[in-house]
Specification:
Oligomer: single chain
Order of helices and strands: HEEEEEEHEEEHEHH
CATH topology: OB fold (Dihydrolipoamide Acetyltransferase, E2P)
Number of domains: 1
Largest sheet: 5 strands, mixed, barrel
Strand content: 25-35%
CATH architecture: Beta Barrel
Number of helices: 5
Length: 168
């Protein structure tokens, strides 16, 4: 498996502009809720924070591919030390940030392996759009299913969420 490795400077520069990182910190992944949301215990703290991974959108846990996506994130991150570039909070109070382990960008890996879509709130595209096109072309992960993979926003539009609210 080829891993996507990036440097800190490249990690902070996304798309056409720089991501304004409010803070960079280290922690460990206590739980993986789904392919794009984890609970991270910050170094020196006891209580985890809910962190939505910036730049990706994984399937809802109840939609086709949701369990596979969650399992992929679990294999990469569960109980491992991660570096977080915390870029703020969303309307649901979740932290939004980039995760990496030893320089490997976990969001990029999820998209490259076809376990998540590249996503940027309000624009649809994200910093990993090229990786998504590659995964789709190679029919990797979710994009290899015999039926078309339904993006999470479209799934939520027709089916709601698995959790009774409409968080992206």
């Amino acid at each position: 498996m080829r891993l996507v490795r990036i440097g800190w400077l490249a990690w902070l520069l996304v798309g056409t502009g720089a991501v304004q990182a409010s803070e960079v910190w280290t922690g460990w992944v206590r739980w993986v809720m789904d392919g794009d949301t984890v609970l991270v215990v910050r170094e020196g703290q006891r209580e985890p924070v809910k962190l939505r991974i910036d730049g990706i959108d994984a399937p809802e846990s109840c939609q086709p591919g949701g369990e596979a996506s969650r399992d992929a994130m679990m294999r990469m991150a569960l109980r491992k030390t991660v570096q977080v570039v915390d870029v703020g909070r969303d309307v649901y109070g979740r932290h939004i940030g980039r995760l990496s382990i030893d320089g490997v960008d976990l969001g990029a890996e999820m998209v490259r392996s076809g376990m998540a879509w590249a996503y940027r709130f309000r624009t649809g595209k994200g910093p990993y759009a090229g990786l998504q096109r590659q995964a789709q072309k190679q029919k990797t992960g979710l994009f290899g299913a015999s039926q078309s993979a339904m993006s999470p926003p479209l799934f939520r539009k027709f089916h709601g969420t698995c959790h009774g609210h409409s968080a992206p």
